[in-house]
Amino acid sequence: MTTATALEPRAYIVFTGTGPILVLSTYSELTDERLLEKLRYKGIGSFIAYQVDLAAVRRRYEHSYENVAEDLAQEEDIRVLDFNGHQIMANFKLDQLGESIKYGGG
Q1: Backbone dihedral region for residue 69 (phi beyond 0: left; psi -120 to 50: alpha; all else: beta)
Q2: What are residue 52's phi and psi, to 5 degrees?
Q3: Fewer beta carbons below 10 Å: N end or C end of the chain?
């Protein structure tokens, strides 16, 4: 039996050089240096991101959400939930997104 506390993920649409991805992250901030290092390792050195409502993500990705969230439950990490830009843009309206998180590009 583990004593670790389950971490509540946050969902983000991250616009990268190759298009948007939808990710779940249990890091406290998208700009956490450990997370940024993982993104850089994957070739993402700059991005614009928006946090999205977790309940909306659960509803729209009900078949894959639980598996991905369970994988993140015990550690700070990040997982891609969707990399199909067309599907992401069909699922979320840009005018419903909040403030952007910008990183890199310079």
Answers
A1: alpha
A2: -120, 155
A3: N
